[in-house]
Amino acid sequence: MAQHEVRETIVVDQYTRGLVGPDQEWAGTVADGGTIETYTPPACWGPMITPEFRGGHEVTRPIRVENAEVGDAVALTIRDIEVTSLATSTGTMREREGAFGDDPFVDHRCPECGTEWPESVVEGTGEDAIRCAECGANASAFGFEYGYTVVFDEDRTVGVTMDEAGAHELATDAEDVMDIPENSRQHPILLYEPSEMPGTLGRLRPFIGNVGTTPPVELPDSHNAGDFGQFLLGADHDWGLESEAELEKRTDGHMDISDVRAGATLICPVKVDGAGVYVGDLHANQGDGELSLHTTDVSGTVTMDIEVIKGLDIDGPILLPNEEDLPFISKPYSDDELATGRELAAAHGVDLADDMGPIQVIGSGATINDATENAFDRAGTLLDMTEGEVRGRCTFTGGVQIGRLPGVVQLDMLAPMDRLEEQGLAPLVREQYDLDG
Q: How far apart are alpha carbons 362 and 317 in whole angstroms?
């Protein structure tokens, strides 16, 4: 990757075609302490139905961060997310046999002529609209098992699902309605015009589903996680992995955690020099767990500040969500609670450990249990705790939340501030939650 001029603010509107890794072209270099602004296309439905893609998302080219070296971490403070799509379609997926080899997200092929990752064209609307440019066959690897189309209000506060006529009307102007960026190469999922569940109202709260740093091996962008990454083990394509040890090189950018939204800070491992920050997979809303495995993919803009944390050698992400998104048991203590706690501790002759801060350690794995074990390991290494202590603190002052089924979790804990000081995390935690130093 070539070097670039260091910029205080970098704007990115160039994308990969479904891959993340050290061989992707840099989008540019941002200063340590600078700002990243991105304009991202929808994912993942659009890339999923576009057979040219090698992965299930369309994320930005990686951004080099000044001073970021392997063994550091970068803190991404999300300042703003703006949804620019007017509507989208989503639902549960159905795979089309013959249109892929081992993995319908990765190794696409035309079911008629056999062309691998065929160029494609759009003919009309509906699930037969994506056609192989070579032979004209339906070349998309996916359809809907159960699908719906959602239109948003002007302020993007709510969405309403469409009936058949409304979904078809939106499909006829799909690229403009979804605001597909000029440099994007995906077909818009609105073309499929699903219309089940009409007239349902939903609240919107946008977040980033795939954001993080570049892994040291090339991976499909949708598989940069411990659960989706399982599909790469033993796969007979260019991105197949031989062992779980190879999958441990992931950076868990694909989290689908709805708390990764404006106001949150995400701390990511640096596994290649320059970090290679990338952004994609904006969602208009989602309940915990992403139970359909898909949600409301949208185009939009993201603004975030970036800071290098030297020597913070972490294996996966750490999230500092908005305080309102923390579970009740994990919120910072109020002055009244601390006063009561000090009185109670004094009455029983113990010193109160009153300098604590909330953190969420992200874990991923083949199942929710595996992801939780991964989070236990990561938290124990980060905070120099036994698994017993991690489990105890997370039971008494935290818990575990499901980011995505089958295997991404947020492990909540009120962590001792002296442990966070040792790792260089205390200033970020204090600032995020307005805690006294």
A: 6
pLDDT at residue 252, rounded to an integer: 98
Task: Report cis status (omega within 30 of 0) of the bond before 406.
Answer: yes
Collapse the DSSP code of 364 into the 3-class scheme (helix H, G, I; strand E, B; otherwise coil) and give the result. Answer: strand
CATH T-level assignment (fold) for domain 6-80+207-239+253-317: Jelly Rolls (2.60.120)
Confidence grade of residue 367 (pLDDT, cut at 50, 70, 90): very high
pLDDT band at 380 (very low <50, low <70, confident <90, very high): very high
Cα distance between residue 321 and residue 78, in whole Å: 10
CB 15 within 8 A of CB 59: yes
Contact by Cβ (8 Å): 282, 40: yes
Helix (H), strand (E) at residue 336: helix 335-347
Which residue ranges make up each domain of the chain?
6-80+207-239+253-317, 87-203, 323-433
pTM as predicted: 0.97
Paired tokens of 65 = 């961060």
Q: Are 415 and 398 in contact (CB under 8 A)?
A: no
CA angle (315, 318, 324) in 5-degree steps: 165
Residue 437 has what pLDDT? 67
Give the span between the Cα atoms of 171 and 128, in whole angstroms.
13
What would the two tokens of residue 128 be? 């037969």
Q: Is the predicted pLDDT of residue 356 greater than 50, yes or no?
A: yes
pLDDT at residue 146 tops 90 = yes
160, 163, 121: which is closest to 138 by C-alpha? 121
Residue 170, phi-psi category: left (phi > 0), alpha (psi -120 to 50), beta (remainder): alpha
Look at residue 1 and tell me whether its pLDDT is greater than 50: no
